[in-house]
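Z., the sequence and structure:
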Amino acid sequence: MTDGIHKDRLDKLEALRADGQDPFPPRVPRGTPVAELLDGFDDRHGEVATVAGRLGVVRDFGKLRFAHLTDRSGSLQIGFQRDRLPDFWPTRKRIESNDLVSIKGELGVTKKGEPTLWASEVTLAGKALRPAPEKWHGLVDTEQRYRMRYVDLFANPEVRRDFMTRSRIVREVRAYFDSLDYLEVETPMLQPLFGGAAARPFTTHHNALDMPLFLRIAPELYLKRLIVGGMERVYEIGRVFRNEGISTRHNPEFTMLESYEAWADYRDIMARVEGLFAHLCKTVLDGRTKVTFRDQEYDLAPPFQKQAYLDLFAEHNPGVDWFDVDSVTRRAKELNLPIDGIEAGKLANDVFEATVEDQLTGPVFVYDYPVAISPLAKRKPEDPRVTERFELFLAGMELGNAFSELNDPIDQEQRFLAQVDDKDDETPGEVDIDYVTALEYGMPPAGGLGIGIDRLCMLFSGSASIRDVVLFPLLRRIDPAAASADPDAAADATNDNGGAANESSQ
């Protein structure tokens, strides 16, 4: 902090201390939320109130100063008059834009009719040693915004609103499942075996037990143990971790909702998903059902469209048989997809993703996925090649995955063994024998669901990138020496992709 602006603020800090004023007091008068004061403001003229928040740009007119104060709920103009603040006035310039303050005063309006709090007492709550970004040319660089989220939140009100919307979405997801008599539970994030999805895990080591552990890629197998235990309806909202790429849809650490319901199947879970969206439209969108996402409008009102996976594959890949390796391989080569060392079912699904997913505007349930790519789902009695599984798509983006849960321990063990035989970096290295044992004690028919909360928040807030709805997305680390010398410049110097760009399914 050696430039002129920082030195000027440091000088003011020392001047405050020299006069016996604490620039960082332990407590100040707490304020009424700005939004509460603005509600019915016409009836509040003359009322004395206190507000607390961050000062915006100060406009000085000699005997009169104006600045907007912003708290979490909104912004209100503050008027500083010399006659109302005789003790404060001589040192008024020590309190400036971006400082945190508590202000008591009288509610009124300016000559132009703008709601204003005319200050009678000003208390410094925290001296800012850095100015806020300039209004029109401030914190706009995408990478810098993600790195300096603490600035992004107070500099860009729409960002703050998006994260408040995220909080509301999570709260309403909980309310929906609670209303259906589900129990919210917590399962281990550190797991001795990783499973429940096809993904590459993060690995760590527990010193006391001298054993490797994995950050979970999904809570699924633990939640289904609870169904065996008789809890019947459970859900969890929590972090999962996948050691894969970063893109507009993927962050290595993300939030997942998973729910399981005994005595249900995937048709029941489709109804649950439609019910959840109806609830979110009512509570988060205040009754609206239409959202704008990536410049296109979508109607989230149920019922959603339904299309079979194999029908879509055949439609977009004429003459290609999903179950014929040679046929799929030829198609994969036409699409310039990697083929070496890739298991046949995964390769066929890669073709599906490359040719079909972007065409799924939705919202649409794609159902009946092949067994080869659904190791935890129950086979469909009418066609044992496929499972009772569906995924929800909108704008070419997968939002959720669900199925009738496989509860046959013999079939489950065989599928686990097949996974291990076809092992690559994204499949479990050994069979989860304890989970198979749990199934041997008997699990009732059940329907399970997984929904990516971050993608749900993207949709409901209209955000194009997952990093716009994750408070602190993972980014490439910058040079600590450069950051120490000039944090703003170091953040600005990094590239925008955070260090990776490859797509990988969550």
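The two ends are 42 Å apart (CA to CA). The longest strand covers residues 115-126.

Let me know what you think.
H.
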